[in-house]
Amino acid sequence: LKELYPEDLLNVSKELTEGEVKFLKQLNDLLESKYRDSINDHWINATIPEGFFEEMGKLDYFNNPLLFEGREGARMASQMFQFFLSYTVARFDVSLVTLLGVHQGLGHNAFLFGGSKEQVAHYIPKLQSHELRTCFALTEPEHGSDVAGGLETTAKREGDKWIINGAKKWIGGANVSDVIPLFAVDVETGKPKGFIIRPEQEGVDIDIIENKIALRIIPNANIHLKDVVVEEADRLQNINSFKDIAKILYSTRAGVAYMATGAMAGALRATLDYVTKRKQFGKEISKYQLIQEKLAMMQGNLSQAITLSAQLARMQEKGEYDEVATSTAKMMNALRLRESVAMGRGITGGNGILAEYDIARFFSDAEAVYTYEGTHEINALVIGRALTGDSAFI
Ligand code: FAD
């Protein structure tokens, strides 16, 4: 464990089972051996490493017996494992963990929670084995934080069919998805519904958002929908209100808190690597007190985030899923991540703005983590609502 997570100074990872550690080690070795040399180039060129999805599929995360030891009848890995899974990939690269997150988290859960028994039986095994790729299409050009009440994409029922019109923005991995769960308002009832869209369908036009300064490896896309015809059989039968969509969002918000923690570890690692090599005034800069104080703060932020994430995982494991705890972890870990990457970027001097030194990638990617899955302010308002009993935003 010390070798796998040397930065876990409070020994939280000791709570993982032997099987889980073995799996995480395999995952970490795979990332390091296959993608280490090319990851910064992929970031610069905005390309997904070839075969990444297939490699992740081969790890068979949803069926790997290493993960179910002692978990009676469970087909779900432990929440502590889920935390360290996200952490480990994020420590390597935040785009890759986001790509997995939209597929295995938001997209997968849209089918799992939103699908009928038949839809779940048909799609979930294919999504879990990565035979089918998916994403999550909720945000619109004019509606991000206020998407709950603001959805403008419409669905009009005509017999056994629905006609969808509108637009989506920021949809991670939409262009590399086979099936897209997409949300639109039923013009008759005014309530949101979920639909399974296929990129090749007539009336669906997907274009990639260019020139992002964060998460360059994961493509984010605009989806334009013009009179797209969807069969009633391709409507996600259990999405009938925004509450149903919110359930999916909350199910994965914890994952973003975990990613933020892993990203902090990645930033610390890149910074430590630099300070032990870079000499100024005749000595490695790691030997200077002001540098060590910043490293200690980065470690402190990370230890706090690991502790907070682990407690969230423990609560979830016990079925104590809590909106406020999740929003607190997302808000605080993303905030501390932003602080940590700025310190790391400062410590690495001019080289810190060059992609080849890794820290620039974490520095930029932190900006996306800060914004998606509920911005800082929106998560603060969730907490504020719990504290005061007054909703300041819905
Ligand atoms: P806005 O909602 O316009 O907010 C702008 C600012 O105003 C923010 O600082 C916000 O906190 C603040 N604000 C808004 N309302 C209030 C208020 N009431 N009080 C105080 N402050 C407020 N969406 C998907 O559906 N699928 C995806 O796969 C996906 N991937 C994404 C990937 C990336 C890299 C990014 C950047 C976004 C992604 N999103 C995705 C969208 C994401 O969820 C939204 O960006 C997010 O919800 C914020 O919406 P917005 O960007 O429109 O900002």
UniProtKB/TrEMBL annotation:
Reported cofactor(s): FAD
Pfam family, one: Acyl-CoA_dh_N
Ranges where the Acyl-CoA dehydrogenase/oxidase N-terminal domain occurs: 18-130
Transferase as UniProt keyword: no
Domain named Acyl-CoA dehydrogenase/oxidase C-terminal: residues: 245-387
Presence of keyword Oxidoreductase: yes
InterPro entries per UniProt: Acyl-CoA_Oxase/DH_mid-dom (IPR006091), Acyl-CoA_Oxase/DH_mid-dom_sf (IPR046373), AcylCo_DH-like_C (IPR036250), AcylCo_DH/oxidase_C (IPR009075), AcylCoA_DH/ox_N (IPR013786), AcylCoA_DH/ox_N_sf (IPR037069), AcylCoA_DH/oxidase_NM_dom_sf (IPR009100), Glutaryl-CoA_DH_mitochondrial (IPR052033)
Domain Acyl-CoA oxidase/dehydrogenase middle span(s) in chain numbering: 135-228
Keywords for the protein's UniProt record, in alphabetical order: FAD, Flavoprotein, Oxidoreductase, Transit peptide
Superkingdom in the source lineage: Bacteria
Sequence similarity: Belongs to the acyl-CoA dehydrogenase family.
Name assigned to this protein: Acyl-CoA dehydrogenase family protein
Organism, as annotated: Salinicoccus siamensis
Phylogenetic classification of the source organism: Bacteria, Bacillati, Bacillota, Bacilli, Bacillales
